[in-house]
Design brief:
Elements lengths: L28 E4 L1 H7 L7 H14 L3 E5 L5 H12 L8 E7 L2 H10 L6 E8 L2 H8 L3 H22 L4 E8 L6 H15 L7 E7 L6 H14 L6 E7 L6 H10 L4 E4 L13 H9 L12 H12 L20 H13 L35 H12 L5 H18 L5 H12 L6 E11 L1 E10 L2 E9 L2 H13 L3 E11 L6 E10 L4 E8 L2 H19 L2
Parallel strand pairs: 1-2, 1-8, 2-3, 3-4, 4-5, 5-6, 6-7, 7-8
Antiparallel strand pairs: 9-10, 10-11, 12-13, 13-14
Helix pairs in contact: 2-11, 4-6, 6-7, 8-9, 12-13, 13-14, 16-17
């Protein structure tokens, strides 16, 4: 790999840069370019009907500016623009945007496409970067400025002829980030001298990172330079359009907003040429996670994914921020334990989200809590406990969590598979609940007269037996009966119970931890509509584990 043939982009001389100390306080103006930049990057571009459906979806999501295409590029693009306008499909609060090169016949065709629109953004562009000037166009700085100015004049003329009030002007010095900054400002000022925007009728100056060539801080410096040097700053909206060639389009956009930009162009899930555009959903949700209203509605993320995938024939990666199928899922044991504790803590402050490893509440994007924690060989006690409690109402004591976590890990590891909630429940049930061999509780009778006596009928390896015991309460009496009649020496270390409402009938579940004569610990659980019976079943389950271990 011959790295020596590449050169880093020059940094911007901006010793007193201010953007590092700024904070994003509100959402920018959003403009979706899914139907233009996103669509032109597809192997199979959207059909007219797909574009119409996608446009409606973007409007429903809350976009107020939508770049719908390059009408002069093809008949499909032109027809789509006409279908929106003639069909009355553009909401009153949505402004369409159309792209045009700074070439006379293309500009005229573009104006024909938007005829009759109540409001349209005419997006004029031409390339200005050093590389484009020298390699593609072989034109001087002044010749490139002349191209931009001639286009701006024609846009102004045609808008006046058709009703200036129906148009907003936008200019992009394409490949801005690869252009000398003083020259980029010079080109923009020349265009603005033609359009003469005012604070009441602003123009949009879009400063694209057309090909991402440097770290995000360099782009932020470039935007701050333009923000501080372009004339008529109070009469323009500085817009961003970043690409993801270095994988940092979102970061570039966020830092550029700190540097003074007002508007963001991008796509859903980052679709676009080469590695794509900045992902507007990602940027907006980053703001949301910091308590800022994004002014876009992503509360039904799965519906958005469905529309996107159907329209583009692309797919959303399972690890995609906020939208991926696995982004709210933890497999790691330590992560699961922290999430479980955080979810429990949330019950004391439900209005303030603070759960480790989860930047937002999955419910905010229409997801449920079911897949937050999933169990495999990397999981631990916290995840297992979370699944059983949230799916089945089982609240294991901490000591039992540790034991069952190891059991679940072993099963998952040996099978090289994830354990689904129902599999986890079946494993718990098999491991602890109402174990009936070697001994099985058939029935019992309790008599309370100062002390409690218990007479119980059991089967021992299939043979019927009677056991009796006297103690302080039914549990103590039953345990003494087992010790004296069966010769099993054990002590109860911990005991807990709670109601279990997983089925239509309210039942109780009891957990016991016991130790045998050698100090080994065993767990058992009992479930019954009677608390007393669930307690005795739990003891029988634990004692059976002693007997099984002894062979």
């Amino acid at each position: 790999m011959n790295y020596a043939k590449y050169r880093p982009i020059e940094s911007v001389e901006l010793a007193d840069r201010r953007w590092p100390g700024n904070r994003i306080a509100c959402a920018p103006i959003w403009c979706s370019v899914d139907l233009r930049d996103g669509n032109q990057a597809l192997e199979i571009p959207m059909t007219l009907n797909q574009k119409l459906e996608f446009f409606k979806f973007l409007a429903d999501t809350g976009f107020k500016q939508i770049e719908i295409g390059f009408p002069a590029a093809s008949e499909t693009e032109f027809s789509f623009t006409r279908a929106l306008i003639e069909g009355g499909l553009i909401p009153d609060d949505v402004v369409i945007q159309v792209l045009t090169q700074s070439r006379e016949h293309i500009i005229k065709r573009t104006f024909d496409a938007v005829a009759g629109a109540s409001k349209a953004i005419i997006h004029l562009y031409n390339s200005t970067s050093t590389l484009q000037r020298e390699v593609v166009f072989e034109k001087s700085r002044q010749e490139i400025i002349g191209l931009a100015v001639e286009g701006a004049k024609l846009v102004e003329k045609l808008a006046e002829e058709r009703g200036r009030e129906h148009f907003i002007f936008e200019y992009s010095p394409e490949s801005f980030s690869g252009t000398e900054m003083d020259y980029a400002v010079e080109v923009c000022d020349a265009v603005l001298d033609v359009w003469k925007p005012t604070p009441q009728r602003k123009a949009i100056i879009n400063l694209p990172n057309t090909v991402e060539m440097a770290t995000p801080n360099v782009y932020a410096d470039q935007i701050e330079y333009a923000h501080r040097h372009i004339k008529r700053r109070d009469s323009i909206i500085i817009s961003l359009h970043t690409h993801n060639d270095r994988g940092t389009a979102v970061a570039c956009t966020e830092l550029a907003l700190l540097a003074g930009a007002d508007r963001v162009e991008g796509t859903l899930f980052g679709n676009g040429e080469r590695t794509g555009n900045a992902d507007i959903m990602n940027i907006a949700m980053n703001m949301y996670a910091n308590g800022i209203d994004p002014r876009l509605d992503f509360s039904h993320i799965d519906e958005m994914i469905s529309v996107y995938e159907k329209s583009t024939n692309l797919y959303v990666h399972p690890r995609h921020p906020y939208a991926g199928s696995l982004v709210y899922t933890a497999f790691s044991g330590s992560h699961q334990d922290a999430i479980n504790k955080g979810m429990q803590k949330m019950k004391t402050h439900p209005d303030l989200w603070a759960v480790p490893y989860l930047t937002i509440d999955p419910k905010d994007v229409g997801r449920t809590y079911d897949p937050i924690i999933r169990i495999n060989s990397q999981s631990g006690k916290g995840g297992v406990a979370y699944i059983l409690e949230n799916s089945y109402g089982i609240k294991m004591p901490k000591s039992m969590q540790q034991h069952f976590g190891a059991v679940a890990t072993q099963v998952s590891d040996e099978g090289s598979k994830e354990l689904l909630p129902e599999e986890l429940y079946k494993l718990f049930d098999k491991e602890y609940v109402n174990i009936e061999a070697p001994i099985c509780l058939v029935k019992y009778n309790e008599t309370a007269n100062g002390e409690t006596s218990v007479d119980a009928k059991i089967t021992d390896r299939g043979e019927p037996r009677l056991i009796s015991g006297i103690g302080d309460g039914i549990l103590d009496a039953f345990c003494k009966g087992i010790r004296s009649n069966l010769g099993v020496d054990f002590e109860i270390i911990s005991y807990s119970e709670h109601s279990l409402e997983y089925s239509s009938k309210s039942r109780a579940i009891t957990y016991v931890e016991i130790s045998d004569a050698s100090g080994r610990k065993f767990f058992g659980a009992g479930i019954s509509s009677s608390i007393s019976k669930s307690s005795l079943r739990a003891v029988v389950s634990a004692v059976n584990k002693i007997l099984r271990s002894d062979g």
